[in-house]
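We give its fold:
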Amino acid sequence: MSTPTPTPKRWPNPAMPEWDGSIAGARALQLELARRVLVRDDFHEPLRTVAGFDVGFEDGGAITRAAAVLLDARTLAVIDRQVARLATTMPYLPGLLSFRELPALLQALELLPQRPDLALVDGHGIAHPRRLGIAAHFGVAAGLPSVGVAKKILVGTAAALHEIRGAHTPLRDQGQQVGWLLRSKPKCNPLVVSPGNRVSMTAAAQLAMRFTTSYRLPEPTRLADRLASRRDEPRR
């Protein structure tokens, strides 16, 4: 059986401020935190580092396993990779996934040797019913520029998408653009890309493609996905 990761003490953990533990309280907190999301570019160029984040589970879901992979933003060389393991304290509830995953993600961030200039998170940013998916919640809690890169639509509709690499079309929900459908690789299903925090709508799609090589997923989240799913254990 896996041993949960001890809690690092370097940075504060504002993941769930003043949450009473109820479903209604979580939804109310999502609406409050969504108002703190900044959908405009507030990051420094040139980016020096980018990190990918993803979450998996161990021991039948008893342990939440969060992966963080830090890369050089120019070369995409891996600088560091870390895994944080925490006892899972909340069941899966539709629309409230970030409350289940965020504490472990923040610990994985704290284990990295430095804070990244940008975080790509496997999951949704503002393309969420209450505009606070895991990438947005993480970005607000950590104070980081963040982008959500998800594999499926959670909310919204979009027009048909061209097959060419890099093609993207707006994803809209209730008359508001909440993200993009992005064709990162021809003949593959599109990704759902949305701003998390401190990134504009336009830049979200551009940044996702900037870090995409020959795979469907951007390299930071591709590597984090492998690590979170235990296909690629960290090198010690």
User: Anything to note?
Assistant: Helices lie at 23-34, 97-111, 134-142, 201-210, 219-228. Residues 12 and 142 are 8 Å apart (CA to CA). The longest helix spans residues 97-111.
